[in-house]
UniProtKB/TrEMBL annotation:
Species classification: Bacteria, Pseudomonadati, Bacteroidota, Cytophagia, Cytophagales
Organism whose genome encodes this protein: Hymenobacter nivis
GO function terms (MF aspect): oxidoreductase activity
Occurrences of domain DSBA-like thioredoxin (ranges): 3-204
Pfam families per the UniProt record, alphabetical: DSBA
Protein name: DsbA family oxidoreductase
Amino acid sequence: MKVEIWSDVVCPFCYIGKRRFEDGLRQFGHPEAVEVVWRSFELTPDFQPVPGQSIHDSLAAKKGVSPAEGRRMNDHMTGIAQEVGLAYDFERAVPANTFLAHQLVHLGAHHGRQDATKERLMAAYYTQGRDLNDLETLVELGAEVGLDAAEIRQALAAGTYAEAVRYDEYQAQQIGVRGVPFFVFEDKYAVSGAQPAELFAEVLGKVWDEAQAAKSQLVAVAGQADGPACGPDGCD
């Protein structure tokens, strides 16, 4: 069963949604049957970091509100994150353009380390104040999850996975994604937003049940009688 998740590394609800989905996956009971594929989505693809600007001021500028209101909004988000065991530290967070970070996630996927890469980037941004605009920071973070530092540096400098990021975003546009996180289950069911874990478990269960039912409803199309065949005891 494939679940595709469009998200941004610097989207606060995306990290919260990741935790809720993981909780729902545990409740579902068949996590080994689920393939999670992370898809890229940049909330602000044209974002240009301003040196020294706080995350509160950056949010205020984006939303057209006062810095005090930006801080209040982030404080509120911190409280929501705590409910799923995440310790957001907005005082240290560095506003970032995430194009390179998304490329790193694709490199991680190439080596079977996509989820670990995604998790490391989100933790670095939200809890450790790491600067995801910085190439060497991305190299270090990728190396921490088992990727080769030289390959990371070369791939990000050359834009090896830039087109993969753009294609994810094109797909998002085609299916009508307007906000993230956005979850697609087996190309059939969609869930928008950081929904409760119970909802994710319910949808996973529904897809699982449908798949099991389909296996038991195969219809013979060659007629009523079986044709010649071979079995463990020989051939007809």
